[in-house]
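Subject: for your reference before the review

Hello V.,

The reviewers asked for a structural picture of the protein, and I figured it would be easier to keep everything in one thread rather than splitting it across files. Below is the amino acid sequence we used in the manuscript, unchanged from the supplementary table.
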Amino acid sequence: MIKGKILKKHEKVKKSKTRTILLRFCIIGFAIILCMILVPAINYGIIQNSYKGEKIYRQSINTLPVRDIAIVPGTSVLDDTPNAKCKERLDTAEMLYKKKRVSSILVSGTKKETSVMCRYLISHGILAKNILRDASGISSYETIARAAEKLPKKTVYFCTQELYANRAQFFMKCAGFDGKIVCVDTMFYSNPCKTFLREYFADSKAVLNFLLYHGKPKQSIKKSGFAKLPSYKVSDTKYHIQAQNKQVPSDYQVADSNPNDHYDVVKAVEYARTYALKRNPSYPAFENNCTNFVSQCLAAGGISMTGKETPSDTKRLKVSKKSTDWYSISKEDNQKIKHYTTSSAFINTDDFLKYFQEELGYSLSTFDNTYEGKLKCYQTIQQRLKMILPKSKNDLLSAQK
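And here is what came back from the structure prediction:
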């Protein structure tokens, strides 16, 4: 009996210890999860509230005071051309330079990024002697800290997207750099949620960099100085395509195969030629902009928009999911910033096809976005052109009569 009681007592003690250990693990696990949630949130709040000044937008470049240099932080490049985000930053720096708001431009990033960025600027008429290249500025922090070390008395404009503006301004303060952020946004980007989450956690890294380095670069310019500019030939078309400088072929003709309908092919084609290489600010622009541009051309040709919603006073873009709507409307605020409202069918391929097939009753051909699909598309277009276009100049004259 006594032995049995002792064993039961030992079992109770053992169970009690097990419960205590499990409770401790749960508390520690909960504390870790809480820290993982709270620390990024606190850091995000610190960065986003670190700058209370008025933001500068690309549209106000003409009214900006003169500063010494424009800094362009690097981002991904596509083969030998800048991607959409990088191009916006470079184009803004180019505008600052050509409007004589700065006398030089510093590009910063990886070796490949800065090489492409330098060539892009030179191809747009920026003098090579007025371009600086930092091929070791592999992050926003390094870009600003190294620039502050190299150019401590210079005043700068830092060209980046509005989403990154507060973090960049935080780095400027850390480095004691006299810099202003110019928000370069002219379009809406793909995967906005993913981009926001990346910035959300990047703010924790920003605070950590400040605590560890106090505004000083991780890699001093004394150890890794600014790089030389890459070689470049004006005749080299590998790095830039100036399609807008190409002449329209002398035999270029546009014919409307059905002039009695409500769609004007000539106006649609002229719109496409006008805005293929420059943006129409009456419409929003997107990183993946093909369906949006097709819709604009169709609207220019006479297809009426359906549905309407007033643009927001606060949000720059509102998108309606109504399947019966096809429209895009804009308005300008007091800062001359455009606000847009558009239907999903105007900008989304699947919704566009659904609207034109189910609502308007069009019969549309679709092709896969592969080599074979594109080839089939071109062959189909060629066959249809043969059916509607004159075969010779004499036929053309007869058709015009």
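For the response letter, the relevant points are probably these. Residues 54 and 181 are 10 Å apart (CA to CA). The two ends are 120 Å apart (CA to CA).

Happy to draft the paragraph if you're swamped.

O.
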